[in-house]
Specification:
The complex is a heterodimer of chains A (about 110) and B (about 110). Chain A is mainly beta and about 110 residues long. Chain A is about 0% helix and about 55% strand. Chain A is globular, with a radius of gyration of 14 Å. Classes of the chains: A mainly beta (about 110), B mainly beta (about 110).
């Protein structure tokens, strides 16, 4: 059983503040780490696919880092806005021939307080 | 990005009936689609991998006779929950792979009375 843990489970952040949360995953047989943003009643939106140790990716005010040796990834949001309110999911893909399966964490539910 | 639709978004049915959920890739072809289920406060759990033109691959503990999957074309996979019971009430969501990323539909909330 693959364990993908996300913390915190939920988070309230004042508009304009920056925040970050964590995804931890198995450090062995790593292939990729995916981040998604999931707003209520919508489809999960793919944010990043991270594959290389030390990788840092950025999309607007959101960025993510990856440490495959210790098995964690951070997602950062700079200058939070109300539209950032969503559940942020990470998903781990294991190195395995022909494998496309993703194992998800339970998510971090972010609420931005205006 | 790629768009995946799912229908219906919500369904309520009586115990013992069967329910069909459709998953479509709208602007790309998908030889592989995935079906997940999510119970309250839990993560998305993969149920099965749907392969176009061949049998689906089910995860351990998922009954293939209960959750019938058909992937008859490169843009459509269906999940049929047969003889649904209250314990099948859950959120079901599909995804399809394009350019090394899985794109998700908006999900289906199934309530079995």
């Amino acid at each position: 059983i693959l364990n993908v843990e996300q913390s915190p489970q939920s988070l309230h952040v004042q508009e304009g503040d920056s925040t970050n949360f964590t995804c931890s995953f198995p450090s062995s047989n790593f292939y990729a780490l995916h981040w998604y943003r999931w707003e209520t009643a919508k489809s999960p939106e793919a944010l990043f696919v991270m594959t290389l140790n030390g990788d840092e990716k950025k999309k607007g005010r959101i960025s993510a880092t990856l440490n495959t040796k210790e098995g964690y990834s951070y997602l950062y949001i700079k200058g939070s806005q109300p539209e950032d309110s969503a559940t942020y999911l990470c998903a781990f893909k294991r190195l395995y021939f022909g494998n496309e399966k993703l194992t998800f964490g339970t998510g971090t539910r972010l609420t931005i307080i205006p | 990005g790629a768009v995946v639709s799912q229908h219906p978004s919500r369904v309520i049915c009586k115990s013992g009936t069967s329910v069909k959920i459709e998953c479509r890739s709208l602007d790309f072809q998908a030889t592989t689609m995935f079906w997940y289920r999510q119970f309250p406060k839990q993560s998305l759990m993969l149920m099965a991998t749907s392969n176009e033109g061949s049998k689906a691959t089910y995860e351990q503990g998922v009954e293939k006779d209960k959750f019938l999957i058909n992937h008859a074309s490169l843009t459509l996979s269906t999940l049929t929950v047969t003889s649904a019971h209250p314990e099948d009430s859950s959120f079901y969501i599909c995804s399809a792979t394009a350019w090394d990323t899985q794109y998700f539909g908006p999900g289906t909330r199934l309530t079995v009375l």
